[in-house]
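Lab meeting prep.
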Amino acid sequence: MKNQRFCEVCGKPIRGKPLKTRIDSFIFEVCDECANIGDIDKNVRHPMFRHFLNKEAEKIVWDFRPAHFSFRSVQNRLSKEELETKVKNCEYTHWDNSEGDNPKYKDRYVVYFKAPEGKDYEEFKVIFHCNPRNIAVITVIPETDKYYIEKKKRDKLIQRAFRRVKVTA
């Protein structure tokens, strides 16, 4: 049996199609018996993102060109080089599927990283968009209570402004 697969947890041969399970943010191919150890991973649909989760950075082609990413990194006083190093070295703390079941965002993932020292927030999130050729880094958002409070204030101001302006068709 040339293509025999083995469980990455217990080492037993896998009969049939292996199951993919997530244990502590890592993806493993496991047998039926070991599948209950972690969570069966339905969120990782894209092979490029699997390479990222498995810390196989050499298999990933990165795209740091999106304008919004560049703008947000400057806005949040984050060095683009430092961000690229953290992303390329897969130094993430945790991740999540961006928009769940929305098919428009099925290849988007939100990945959280520890903030560099001296920042007024503990971590920041980076939104990835995966496609067959590469992973595009869409944006960077700091994760702080202060950031969300300010965002809520801005959203309320925008909503008030739109209420005052009546749109006529």
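Slide two material, second protein:
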Amino acid sequence: MPPEQTGGTPTPESATPTGGTQEGGNAGAMPVITPELQAIIDAEKAKATKKANEEAAASRLELKALKDKQKAEEEAKMAENNQFKELAERHKAELAAAQAERDALLPFKQQAEEFAKQRHEELLKKIPEAQRDLYKDFTTAQLETVAATLSATLNGQGSERQGGQQQPQRVTAPTVPFAGHNSDIQQSLLKILGG
């Protein structure tokens, strides 16, 4: 027997505290997330993540500024107390650490320079000997483009001319810049090709 009601409108037996009924619908089930709702959730997550990242970056900068300020104050205090010797030793230690790091990286720098020099020489050897002086000051990237272009040109005029019976075709430089607007290469090629 249902509980007695005092005034008002009668409520059905299957009514829930929120006023709905348990019959039909999705009573007790998880709410359905529509694409629009998911987009809003994702946008809010992105905002929160961006805000957290910005706050973390600001905190890191603030911490670095505080450390720098503390170091400067400490050095000023040491200078006031005539503790130049300790200050000099600290700077000497920092300098030694920086030099050690530089010395550790120096062999890699030398290897990279040697490799670049070798590659430059290899590319120059691909260019006909009579024209090498024209290209010796080109960068390695420019030389790669020139060597590829000249080798294609020379192959088109060499042994494939049926024993030299056909006249070589006049090669014109393209009007579109090579790999990233290297117009200086175009100008050099135009001079060489007589165009």
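Talking points for slide two:
The chain has a mean pLDDT of 76.
Residues 145 and 179 are 8 Å apart (CA to CA).
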